[in-house]
Design a protein that fits this description.
alpha/beta, Rossmann fold, three-stranded mixed sheet, about 15% strand
Amino acid sequence: MALTNKEVLELVPSGYFHTYLRKMEEWNNEMPFIFHLMSIMVVLGNKLGFGIHGTLDRGVEIFPNINTILLSPAGKCRRGEGSKFAAKVARGLGMNVHEGRCTPEGLMDKLSSDVDVLLYVEELSVLFSKRDFLRDIIPFLTKVLLNSGGQIDELTRTNGVMTAAKANLSCIFTTAPDWFLTTIPEEAFGGGLMSRFMPVYMPDREVIHVDIGAGRHGLRDGSVWSEFAMEMQKLVNFLPRGYMEPLGEAEEWFNNWYHDNENKVVDDDRMDPHRNRAPANVLRLAMILAVSNGEKKITKERCIQAEELHKRMEASTWQMYGYTDNKTRGVDSVRKRIYNVLSKGVPMAHAEFLKKVLSYAKSMDKLKSVIGEMMEMGEMTMINKAGQKPGDYPPAFWQLTDKT
């Protein structure tokens, strides 16, 4: 289920992120809070860069840089508008922010002179594409993102081998999820790039607000973003550089959770890379949350908070894969359409479902055939009316199962 703004505030009940979200609430900003939270968390993670680290084992250092993809139907969640706020904070911090399309050579040029780069892409189709001349960016990002602090070498077309001493590259990407059906190349998933992101899917926004007189409030002078930038800089300056030590209770909790995660059964093999990266990602989130609360060590509370946030976002990963070529390979247009219209994760009334799907099927017989196949495979289910016998048609509602 989609995270409400209230639930997101409860996930971060204190600290810098809570203050940031409260400002968005004060402005009645339309972008969902989970989008705001993930965007500003990416900024703090990148600002921390290689300054601090945690460990998963001897010699296995984890740095707090994270990446996110914000997914929502076009025009629904104002994801492009609101994520610009985080980019403004980043610029206020003096961070190297690159916005829009780029090439491996262009990014290597930036990283070779400044190892800390925030890549902000409001429409992901300008960066990823099935067109050959845009495919090179995918293996490059797969290699560079979540870099462990080692040297990066890249053979470029015009400048030969370029070298970056380190690569603290973080990404904030936004796009409409149905773009995955026609645009994203399969190697972005098969090669593991998407497992380097924490995706968040929201079907709609809960705040509907407009204020054409907002210019009177003086927001264009940048003072708000400068204040948030200064507060973030204070938090970073407060930390001692190097190893961020966990307290004893945090170690015990993390050890128990780690073994539970390793034993978790994954129904879809595309989720394996995400499950495998979960310990590192939870540790990254725990470090970022600790810093946002002005803490120098990792507490059990921050670990639990990080795991809960990660768990709540995990459903978004399922939503993301629901739109990929891999998910729908060999699936006809009717089945793809059903995935799309039921993707919100909530039951849809039968009449509304027919209105959105029947024209794709051309006939009721065809639609019933596809529905029957999907139900047999456990991909969707019908919810009957009160007093209706199980299996009777038509049902009250249709819904995708958890596996989809």
